[in-house]
Amino acid sequence: MNEHRFFLTAIFLAVLFSIIKLYEPFLMIIAIASLLAMATYNLNFKLYGVTKNRHLAAVLSTMLLSLLLFGPIVYTITSVGSIVNNFDFSMIERVQAYLHTLDYKLPAPIAFMQAPLDDFINSLNIAQLSSTALSYFGSIGKNSAGFLKDMLLIVVFFFFALLNGKDLVDYFKSVMPIDAKEVNIVFSEVTNVMSVVFYSILLSAILQGALFSFIGMYFGYDGLLLGIFYGFASLIPVIGGAIMWIPLCAIEVAHGNTTTAIIIATYSIVVISIIADTFIKPLIIKYINDKMVKTPTAVNELLIFFAIFAGLTTFGFWGMILGPAITTLFLSLLKLYKLLKEKHYM
Predict the structure, then answer these.
(1) Which residues form the signal peptide (predicted)?
(2) Is pTM beyond 0.85 here?
(3) Which of these three, 124, 144, 166, is where a domain ends?
């Protein structure tokens, strides 16, 4: 019996190693698709309750995700090329010259920072910064094919994860050496936190992007493109939307529209950064936690912030999904270990 089990284990490990090597290029994609399926599990469940057909519910959820992912990305890729080709480099010189004409006298309490500020302004090379930024914009077009391919594969795996996810979870529950209730603790914790994180990131990015698109359209810019860029920029912790409104203000200053630049800066700071991000975003998270997840969960916003920041730093764009997922899984396992220890002593 022991020889039979040893042989079966050896075969299983060999096949498992082969499977990992076979799908190694797609492991990240499969992980992202699975986490997105967990994040949208409750939405898919509600669609299933309406359609009474799990295939149709999975198709509708996949179409919605495709629209949210592909729509902004495709529009951005097609628009960036024309921006790079039509960029006015003389505007850079005007911004540089204008900055050197300003008087940067600091108030007495912080006068000790005057020398470092003067050095910074004198060494500021906007031409080089703009050239670097344009090179990044240009790389978007070069890397777009690979990025779109990955997104297409994510959508495909996402569909099958929704369609067969319950069967896979039930199978793992049956073969894992712990009770199904204990597996449910981990699965429920990760699913609920991922749902709150995913929906809050998505709705917050849409809200802030829409607000910035209004001010952009008002002053004659491509509001949709600015809104998409601002939505993505808002995902970056700390600096966030400043990546968008500071360059836009610099462009207006270069054209002599100082009042417009002040309006854009004030609007971005007060309406978007303070009102939308500080006051409305917590309400969005509370609504999602109360209405859109099966079991409300206590989300530590500071922990999620660091998890997203660490994820973006380590994994890039998709780190905003992987970071919170890995952190939540770790904390859930710690909670499960504590419960098992208490159960053992009892």
Answers:
(1) none
(2) no
(3) 166
At which residue do the structure tokens 């309490």 appear? 109
Averaged over 140-156, what is the pLDDT? 72
DSSP reduced 3-state for 236:
coil
Domain check: are 100 and 198 in the same one? no
Highest mean pLDDT (candidates 121-125, 143-147, 222-226): 222-226
CA 278 from centroid of its chain's CA atoms: 18
CA 249 to CA 264: how far, in whole Å? 7
Residues 6+ apart with CB under 8 A from 244: 212, 226, 229, 230, 233, 268
HSE, CB side, 13 Å, CA atoms: give it for residue 108: 0
Domain count, the chain: 2
Domain coverage including residue 157? 1-166
User: What is the rounded distance in angstroms from the CA atom of residue 256 to the CA atom of residue 252?
Assistant: 6
SS3 content of the chain, % helix, strand, coil (to 5): 85, 0, 15
pLDDT tens digit sequence for 15-45: 888 888 888 888 888 888 888 888 888 788 8
Mean pLDDT is lowest, of 79-83, 86-90, 156-160, for 86-90
* Boundary of a domain, candidates 166, 194, 219: 166
CA-CA distance, 200 to 231, in Å (whole number)?
A: 12
Other CB atoms within a 10 A radius of the CB of residue 62 amount to: 21
Phi/psi region, residue 256 (left: phi>0; alpha: psi -120 to 50; beta: rest), is left
Q: How many DSSP H helices and E strands does the chain contain?
A: 14, 0
What is the distance of C-alpha 204 from the center of its chain? 11
Looking at the fold, whether 24 and 142 belong to one and the same domain comes out as yes
